[in-house]
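Moderator note: this is an archived Q&A kept for reference. The question asked for a predicted structure of one protein chain; the sequence and the answer are reproduced below.
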Amino acid sequence: MLVMAKLKDILKFIQKPSKAFASEAKTSVREAVRFGLMWLIVPVILSVLFISFKAAEISIFVIISYSLALYLVYIIFYMIFTSWLHLWAYIFGSKTDIGQTIKVVIYSSAPLFLFGWVPAIIPKSATMFASVLLTVWMLVLYIFGLKQLHKLSIGRAAGAALVSSMILTIIALIVIAIIAAVVTVALLAGSLGAIAA
């Protein structure tokens, strides 16, 4: 019965997001964080389990270590992204405190909490599509959340959500490109050194 009640709590953000965010306006930040930390366990554990089933022999220690590491990476990302989104909500006219932004980010993660493990079980060719679909779905929920909890117009909420996400995406792509370039140069230098010897 408790599982069904918790599932109903999260499904409302997928089925009726505007109404769901409005109903959470008075929820404490502590309660929202507890909700997020509890639900974050689902995609982390399922992803790690499905990946470990695909791999050859993996020890339970590796599975637990990877799960904890992934859980911590998500938490760090949430902290960074919440601050970043709050900055853009402020730029777009919000006068609300960061507690409301914390709730927006946590509750907008409903698709991740429920379906974040799916990319781990589908063919690699469809993984990118599934990841993009989850991201866009969450982006739409950020807009609903900013509109309801920050009292922004739909245009300003969309602006804050889109600009913050696009800038982070560009930064991530630049970092990935730099890492790829460094690795490529290192591999080429190693290959040329081996040829010269």
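Archived answer notes: The mean pLDDT is 87.
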